[in-house]
Amino acid sequence: MRDKTSTRLGLMLALAAAVAFAGIVQAQQATDPNPRPGQPGHYNHEEWQGDYPSATAGGDFDVVRTLPLPEGFLGNVAADPETGRIWLVSFGPPTAPGPSTVYEIDPRNGDVLRRAELPLKGDLSSPVYLDGHLYQGVFHESKMHKIVVDDAERFGEIVATVDLPKLADLNLVDEAHPMPFIEFGGVGVTPDGNLVIHADDVGEFITLDPDDGSIVARTRTLKALGGIFAAHRGEGDYLIVGNSDPRGGYCALSYPPALSRTPEQRDISWAVMDGASGEVLASVRRQNSRAYASGVSLLRYEQANGAPYGKFAFLATGEEGLLEIEWTPARDAY
Amino acid sequence: MSFDRVRRPGAIATATGCAVLLLGLAAWTATGQEGHEHHAPQAAASAPAAPTPPAAPTAQAGHRHDDHRMGSEFRIVRVFEPPQGFRGNLAVDRQSGRLWMMSFGPPANTRGPSVLYEADLETGRVLRSAQLPFEGQFGPPTFVDGALHQVIAHESKLYRISVDPETFGRIVGSVDLPTLDRIAHDGEVPLRFPFIGFRGMTATAEGKLLAHAPDLGELVEIDPATGRLERRVQTLRAVEGIAAARGERGQLFVLASSDPVKASFEYHVRRFMWRASHGTVPSVRHGKDAVYWVLLDGHSGEILTSLRQLDPRTHAASLALVDHRSVEGSRFGRFTFLTTGDEGVFTIEWTPGMRS
User: Fold this and answer.
1) A59 or A27, which is more confident?
2) Which of A228, A247, A255, A267 to mutate: most B Cβ within 10 Å?
3) Yes or no: is domain B12-351 CATH 1.10.10?
4) Out of B10, B194, B276, whose CB is closest to A122?
5) pLDDT over 60 (residue B2)
6) What average pLDDT is seen over chain A?
7) pLDDT of residue A217
8) Which residues are CB-contacts of B251 (< 8 A; sequence separation ≥ 6)?
9) What is the dotted CATH code of the domain comprising A61-328?
10) Could you tell me the CA-to-CA distances from A127 to A134, A202, B273 in Å, in that order?
11) Using a CB-CB distance cutoff of 8 angstroms, which residues of chain B are in contact with residue A248?
12) Nearest CB to A292: which of B9, B180, B277?
C-alpha cells in the first residue's frame, strides 16, 4: 500500500513538475518577442499537430446585422467601442475612382452623418480611433495621418503626420523585399495607447508610438493577415483578432493549417492571437464567407461563460455592406 | 556573387500558367519547343498604335507559326562576374562603349547600399564606383544626354546622375513623374499604388527615355528633362528588360526579355486587395523555367518575333544593347546585348529569324 502511494505521489510530482516546466516554457515564449531567424534568441514556431478545422470548431461565429455602405464604397472601417461611433475611409485614386473620403455613419442605420474629402492616394491601411482622432496609415508612403473626427467643424482635417519605419529599419538580416515600405493593412490600439500594425510581408505585430511613429515593440506572428483589431483583457493583456484570405496567403506560413491555402472562393479564416507573443490561440474558417478578409474594427468585447477568450462583436465589410459579426471562440479551436 | 531574383517566400510556388493568358503569352506556351520562334505578319511593323490590350500572337490577324528553319541565331558570347554580391541592372552607352551597373538598395539588397559601378564592357573589371541613396528594387539606369537617368518608381522620381570621372555618381537633378491617378488608364482592374511601376528602360535615338510599365502594359516615352509622358503604346505586360534600336528603314525595334510566370505572379500580387472581392487565385504551374526573348515594334507595340528558352542560363532581367547591325537575309538584324544570370553578366548575340 505504501509502495503504491509512493508511486502515485512520485508520478504526481513528476507530472506537476512537467506541467510547471511546460508552463514556464510557455510563459517565456509568450513574453518573448521571438527575434527573426538569424537574430539572437530566435526559436522556431512549433508546427501545429492537431486536427484540421471543422465548420463548427471555432465556436459561435455569426453575422448579426448589416448596414449599408455609401454607393461604390471601397475602403475600411473604424469604430469607437466606448461610444459606438463608426467611421469609414475610402481608398484614393487610382485604387478607387473618386477622392479618398472619410465618413461618419449612423450606427443604427448606416446613414452618412458627415463626410470630408482626404488627399490620400491608393490602397490604405485600416483607420483606427484613438483620443478623438482617426489614425490613418498610408503604408506605401510610410506615413501615418492623424485626422480630426470629434470636432464637427474640423471633421476630416489632418492635424499631424508622422513618418513610419521602413523595412530597412527592421534589420531583416537576409530577407530581401522589393519595396522599401512596410506593407500593413490591419491596425489596432494597445492597452497603453500605442498603435499596433500587422506587417503582412514580414509577419510581425509592430507597436508604434502614435506621436512620432517610432517602434515600441515587435512580435513575430502570422504573415498575410487582412485586417486586425485589438481587444483588451485588463492588466495590459490583450488579444488580437485577424482574418486571412488564403488567396492572399502567397506568403502565409503553413502554421497553423487553419490559415493555409485552399482553392475555395471566399474561404476566410479568422484567428485570435496573443498580443504579446503573436501566437495563435484559436481560429475558425468560414466557407463562402459573407465578410471579406479585410479591415475590421471592434465594437464590443466581453467575457462569456465557458469562453476562454470572451466574446467579440466587430465590424467587417462584405458584398452586402458593413457586417456586424459576433464570435465566441472555443478553446483550442483550430 | 548573388544573382538570385527578389522573391517573396513561396512566391514562385504560386506562380501561374493560367495568368499567361492574361498576359497575352498563351500561344508561346502552347508550342512547347525550346528555341521556338513566332513571327508576326509583315504588316505588323507598320501597324498603328493598338488601343486595345495586347493580344496573343496567334490572335493577331495573319499570324503564323514558324519553326527552327527560320534560322534564328542565339548565342552567348561571353560571361563575366559582376562585383561581389551585385544584384541590380545594367546600362551601356553604345557610342562610347561605357558600361554601368546599378545595384538595388536595401531592403531589396541585403548586402548594403545601392552602388553605381562603371566597369569594363568585356571583362567586368570595376573602373570606379559610388554609393547612392536609392532604396528597394528599381529598373535599369539609362544613358541619355550625357548622364545616367534612374527611375525610382515607388518615389515617382526620375534622377539624373553624373558619370563624369570627377563627379561620378553625384545626383545632379531630379524630376517628378506622373502618377496613375493623374493619367488616363482603363481602370478595369484597381491598382493598389499610385506610382507607375516602370520596369524596363532604354534610350531612343531622339534622346528620350522609353520605359515599359507592366501595370499598364504599355511602352511609354518619357522626356528626361521634364518627366512628362510624351507617347504611350499598348504592348505585352510580361516584359522585364528592354533595349531599343533603329532599323534601316526607320523602324523602332524594342528587344525585350520576359518571364511570363514571374510576371503573372507579380500581376496578381500587385492587384490583390484584402478589402474587396477578388477573382481566382493563379494556379500553380509545375515545369521548367523559361525566358522569352521578344522583338517588339516600338511604334505599335506589336510582337515581331520571339524566342523561348527553356532552362535558360540567363534571367529575364534588364538588357543593355551593345550593338545592332544589319545582317544579310535578316529582317531585324543582329542584336548584341548584355543581361544577367546566375553565372554573371552575359554578352549575347541574337539574330532573329534569319530567313524570315
Assistant:
1) A59
2) A247
3) no
4) B194
5) no
6) 83
7) 96
8) B45, B297, B298, B299
9) 2.40.128.630
10) 6, 21, 16
11) 272, 274
12) B277
- pLDDT tens string A192-242: 999 999 998 889 999 999 999 999 999 999 887 889 999 999 999 999 999
B6 — contact with chain A (CB < 8 Å)?
A: yes
Query: Is the CB of A176 less than 8 angstroms away from the CB of B107?
Result: yes
Q: Look at residue A35 in the predicted model and tell me its pLDDT.
A: 66
3-state secondary structure chain B: CCCCCCCCCCCHHHCCCCHHHHCCCHHHHHHCCCCCEEECCHHHHHCCCCCCCCCCHHHCCCCEECCHHHCCEEEEEEEECCCCCCCEEEEEECCCCEEEEEECCCCCCCCCCEEEEEECCCCCCEEEEEEECCCCCCCCCEEECCEEEEEEHHHCEEEEECCCCCCCCCEEEEEECCCHHHCCCCCCCCCCCCCCCCCCEEECCCCCEEEEECCCCEEEEECCCCCCEEEEEECCCCCCCEEEEECCCCCEEEEEEECHHHHHHHHHHHHCCCCCCCCCCCCCCCCCCEEEEEEEECCCCCEEEEEEEECCCECCCCCEEEEEECCCCCCCCEEEEEEEECCEEEEEEEECCCCC
Mean pLDDT of the region B334-348: 96
Whole-angstrom Cα distance, residue B118 to residue B130?
Answer: 9
Q: In terms of pTM, does the model score above 0.90?
A: no
Q: How far is A18 from chain B (nearest CA, A)?
A: 37
Q: Which of A177, A248, A293 sits opposite B108 (nearest CB)?
A: A177
Is residue A144 a contact partner of residue A207, using CB atoms and an 8 Å limit? no
Q: What percentage of chain B has pLDDT greater than the value 70?
A: 71
In tens, the pLDDT along B140-199 reads 999 999 999 999 999 999 999 999 999 999 999 999 999 999 898 876 666 889 999 999
Out of A275-289, B24-38, B312-326, least confident range: B24-38
Q: Quick one: closest CA in B to A122, which residue?
A: B193
- The per-residue pLDDT for A18 is 53
Please say if the pLDDT value at position A77 is more than 90: yes
Q: Do A293 and B274 touch (CB under 8 A)?
A: yes
- Report the residue from A93, A177, A185 with minimal CB separation from B107: A177
The burial class, CB within 10 Å (0-12 / 13-18 / 19+), for A20 is: exposed
Tell me whether residues A179 and B187 touch, CB distance under 8 A.
Answer: no
At residue A34, the pLDDT reads 61
Domain ranges for chain B, please list them: 12-351
Q: Mutation test of the interface with chain A: which of B132, B274, B281, choosing the one with the most A Cβ atoms within 10 A?
A: B274
- What are the residue ranges spanned by the domains of chain A? 61-328
What is the predicted ipTM? 0.77
Q: How confident is the model at residue A16 (pLDDT cuts 50, 70, 90)?
A: low
pLDDT of residue B17: 33
Among the listed residues B317, B186, B304, B209, the one whose alpha carbon sits nearest the alpha carbon of residue B263:
B317
Indicate yes or no: CB of A140 within 8 angstroms of CB of B181.
no
Residues A100 and A115: their CA atoms lie apart, in Å, by: 11
Nearest Cα residue to B38 out of B16, B19, B53, B55? B55
Query: Does residue A137 sit at the B interface (CB-CB below 8 Å)?
Result: no
Residue range B72-90: average pLDDT? 93
